[in-house]
Amino acid sequence: MGMMMKKKGNNNVEKPQGGMITMPFIFANEICEKLAVVGFGTNMISYLTGQLHLPLTKAANTLTNFGGTSAMTPLIGAFIADSFAGRFWTITIASIIYQVGMISLTLSAVLPNLRPPPCKSDQTCKEADLGQLSILYVSLLLTALGSGGIRPCVVSFGADQFDENDPKQKTTTWKFFNWYYFCMGASILLANTVIVYVQDNVGWGWGLGIPTAAMALSIFAFIFGYPLYRKLDPVGSPFTRLLQVCVAAYRKRNVVVDCDDPKLLYENEDMDAAISLGGRLVHTNNMKFLDKAAVVTPQDNPKSPNPWRLNTVHRIEELKTLIRMSPIWAAGILLITASAQQNTFSLQQAKSMNRHLTLKFQIPAASMSVFTQTSMLSTIIFYDRIFVPIARKFTGLERGISFLTRMGIGFTISLLATFAAGFIEIRRKHAAIVNGLIDKPHEIIPISVFWLMPQYCLHGIAEAFMSIGHLEFFYDQAPESMRSMATALFWLSISAGSYTSTLLVTLVHSFSGNGDSNWLPDNNLNKGKLEYFYWLITLLQLFNLIYYLVCARFYTLKPVQVRKEEVKERDEVELIGHV
């Protein structure tokens, strides 16, 4: 397994599987899938308020709740992929479920009976009824379930195409994360410009129909590459193994043993062979109460162990590793909470500002996130081509800086983004007051929408550092047999961030005042105090940055012991190469 997987063709010549040849199919799937996701997600706040006539705070919470649910379902997809289905089939089936949800959502935008009638001339609007909202929620639920199978598996499946035991391919793996995120950003950029323009100027039928067709194309592209993929077999449910360790440790909670000597703890290479292909995890001295699960008692049979009573050191260290990762995971929540405002309140700011590039053409409000994507893409190119080679000379690290350092930089820049957003909102409201538009929320304020560029660009730069670093952290530090679940943790932090945004918006809206004195009013943002909300998030991010720095300072990297046979195999390959 240390070598790249191969298959025999019709001429009995072994053909390699995996490697760079598979990237066009995987990236094509990711590009089309993100075009579909972002194509209806970015401008959904406009659809909910403009087509279904929901109040702003209700629409914002609907959107963040959907985002939170979509980012939570990857735990289900990861469980299915790691337990029995494998990543390829999980991605395929989930994509089909997502396709059904997209078709349902498109039909709701096309058929008049599935949405409320247009507003009357006096701005009287009828809100969508329960039946119409039910169609929306079912469609969103299907897309959330579909994304739950796609998101945790695509990035892991792409990284699986490179053999980590080959030093050259391992370097390619870390470049893959940068370029995976680059392709994802490029498709988001296309969605935020072309698709959003179609939605605002042509119609929501076409605006949702195009992403639906893109999703169908992504399924075809992914399946087409089936013969070329390196497909790792599932090795059983990681959740079951973690539960077995907890149960075994609890059963032996009263056992007294010297756990400082790891030689006394149970090891079984045959039992762990399928879940430790890249090397076994070695014993660590923290969380010693879990080590009791590896203590052999007279009631245990070491030759045929019951995993609910006796576990190996490797399995115990899998659980310890995930526990050690959790504080770093939690630090990523508030960054998502901060960036979530781009698709809600920042978009509403943009809708109230002058977006004209010419007398006849104006930028769609949702397309302002193009600045987030272009700054993110530019930062990725700068990071990969310029920053890493320079940093490598000073640090000696192959990737320039550690993923923990990369994440810390992202946290700092995100803090600056929300801090700047507060001052920009003051400037926008000042323009409304000067021009006598403070009581006219539907009038365009004569201030350029490009005032919002700094906050969008800073969020993009922060994402290039923090999100990719976060993804690298999960993939590198998670036990090898739990890679899908590790990627699911990345999306789970996005879920938690989205729900935190919902909670924060709800609390601020409930307790910050009544009517137009509210920080986040339903009908007139000009009379609100959105800048206070941005600065509240900034303060929370400052506390979060301090918390993260403490966690990163005391974090212990995953300890791995490479198998003797793998070292011998690698030495033989190198010897043959020299000969």
Automatic annotation (TrEMBL):
Protein name: Uncharacterized protein
InterPro entries per UniProt: MFS_trans_sf (IPR036259), POT_fam (IPR000109)
The entry's keywords: Membrane, Transmembrane, Transmembrane helix
Primary site of residence: membrane
Membrane topology field: Multi-pass membrane protein
Domain of life according to the entry: Eukaryota
The keyword Transmembrane belongs to this UniProt entry's keyword annotation: yes
Assigned protein family: Belongs to the major facilitator superfamily. Phosphate:H(+) symporter (TC 2.A.1.9) family. Belongs to the major facilitator superfamily. Proton-dependent oligopeptide transporter (POT/PTR) (TC 2.A.17) family.
Subcellular location, record wording: Membrane
Native species: Penstemon smallii
Transmembrane segments: 88-114, 134-158, 179-198, 204-229, 361-383, 403-424, 489-512, 532-555
GO CC field: membrane
